[in-house]
Amino acid sequence: MSMKTTLKTLIAALFALASVSVSAQSKGDMAAGANFNFGFGNAFGNKGIGLKYQYNFTDNLRIEPSFNYFFEKYGTTIWDITADMHYLFKVGRFNLYPLAGLSYMKWISHVAYYTGFFHESRKSSEDYLNFVIGGGADYRLGSNWLLNAELRGKIGEYDARFNLSCGVAYLF
After folding, report:
1. Is 164:36 a contact under the CB 8 Å cutoff?
2. Which of 134, 151, 135, 161 lies closest to 78, judged by CA?
3. Beta strand spans in the chain (E)
4. Residue 76 in contact with residue 109, Cβ under 8 Å?
């Protein structure tokens, strides 16, 4: 196959992909869902759960505010409130999307120690504002349900923290 034929095939494939990139979701569509999370980075990973809401401003642009809670590990729990923008590309029954947004995280540490016969506990917390980048995919199950998987990187005052999530959402 010549270079010219390869280039023509590549251009035709790009036009074909662009023609199917119209999203199945429409302006004004809303969804609510839940997800399981695995956060990693900063020397340890922990599991969590989350809730999210989605609203489509246009057929391809949606906002997703979410709340995630990560269970205690090494005496530390984490919660975050995030607002992301998704740009949707329709590929068959999938929506593929890059995402970008902001996140407010709170790390709460509980430290217990013994001094002689006494047990003492101290609690400290740290707040972080982060930029969020990543990507994900929705898979349409029937007319009202979506399966979802995402990978997000949260970059801020401390080292990067990543969140891998999977969940479901109900379209209404």
Report:
1. no
2. 161
3. 30-41, 46-56, 61-73, 76-87, 89-91, 94-115, 118-141, 145-155, 161-171
4. yes
The one-letter code for the residue type at 72 is E
pTM above 0.90? no
Q: Which of 136, 154, 168 is nearest to 49 (CA)?
A: 168
Residue with tokens 């390869």: 6
Q: Which of 136, 126, 130 is nearest to 104 (CA)?
A: 130
In DSSP terms, 128 is beta-bridged to: 105
The two structure tokens encoding residue 32 = 């609510």
Backbone CA torsion sign across 66, 149, 101, 41: positive
Measured at the alpha carbon of residue 43, what is the angle toward residues 99 and 46, in degrees to the nearest 5? 65
Tokens of 123: 């609690």
- Mean pLDDT for 70-94 is 91
Query: What is the Cα–Cα distance from 24 to 94, expressed in whole angstroms?
Result: 9
Q: Is the dihedral of CA 79, 41, 138, 25 positive or negative?
A: positive
User: Rounded mean pLDDT of 84-111?
Assistant: 92
| Whether pLDDT at 11 is above 50 | yes
Give me the count of residues in the chain.
172
CA 161, CA 78: separation in Å to the nearest integer? 12
Rounded Cα gap, residues 139 and 132, in angstroms: 22
